[in-house]
Design a protein that fits this description.
Number of strands: 12
Largest sheet: 3 strands, antiparallel
Shape: elongated
Strand order of the largest sheet: 2-9-4
Number of helices: 8
Radius of gyration: 20 Å
Length: 238
């Protein structure tokens, strides 16, 4: 309700997720020997790795599902029951354009597909130095930390984004993609920060679906929000 009335997207810090396997950079470094070994060999001291992990904990993640949750599919989304189900349909192209051309938070690329795996924080290793960084329909690519740094410093950034999009396969039915803000795009923060409000334009919202069992007083409050008043669709759950 607050997001809709004040016009923002909420980006959570990964440390605020209940699932410790989700976007936990420390877990990836601890569970994949080749990553820590490569960082140490590249000159990162143990204490530097710790500082790097802390810095990475301040990123912001906003999660989307690619398909509208209906009926029984609602059980695939935590805390989304028939009596409180609201789905906001964003115009993907407008949202993509909004972030890629944003003056303060330009994001390229904007969306990152989620990778589902039974052991999300443990990357497959080819040997003690190289680990799986890409799997395109069986075309598997293994690289070392040294190789990534030698190619271009941005390659290490790509690895970090990949780690932030690996989730346990038990959530696969959520069919998710993410927008991630990191580095200089992260707003001011401190140890108490749990997430970030990123203001968005109202025109990126196409439709707000409100399911039939949502309380009447909640419906009335939504109808009073000018920016979405003509975008609300009252949905009957089938």
């Amino acid at each position: 309700m607050d997001e809709l009335s004040r016009g923002y997207l909420w980006f959570s810090r990964p440390t605020c997720y209940k699932d410790t396997e989700d976007a936990n950079i420390a877990a990836f470094i601890n569970d994949t020997d080749a990553i820590e070994r490569g960082l140490l060999h590249a000159g990162y001291r143990k204490e530097c790795i710790g500082k790097y992990i802390k810095e990475m904990s301040y990123i912001g993640i906003c999660c989307f599902t690619k398909e509208k949750p209906i009926g029984r599919n609602l059980i695939n989304f935590p805390r989304c029951r028939e009596d409180n189900a609201i789905v906001i349909k964003y115009n993907r192209n407008k949202l993509k354009n909004f972030f890629e051309k944003h003056l303060k938070h330009p994001l390229l690329p904007c969306f990152h597909n989620v990778i589902y795996d039974k052991n999300p924080t443990k990357l497959e290793q080819f040997d003690k130095w190289s680990f799986l960084v890409k799997d395109d329909f069986g075309n598997r690519k293994y690289k070392t930390i040294q190789a990534l740094l030698h190619e271009h410093p941005r390659e290490l950034d790509k690895l970090i984004f990949m780690l932030y999009t690996r989730i346990n396969s038990r959530f696969e039915k959520q069919n998710e993609e993410r927008i991630i803000i990191a580095g200089r795009n992260v707003p001011k923060h401190n140890n108490e920060t749990i997430g970030y409000e990123i203001q968005i334009s109202a025109d990126v919202i196409d439709t707000v679906y409100v399911y039939s069992s949502v309380a009447e007083d909640f419906r009335e409050k939504m109808n009073e929000i000018p920016s979405i008043a003509n975008k609300i669709v009252h949905e009957i759950i089938k």
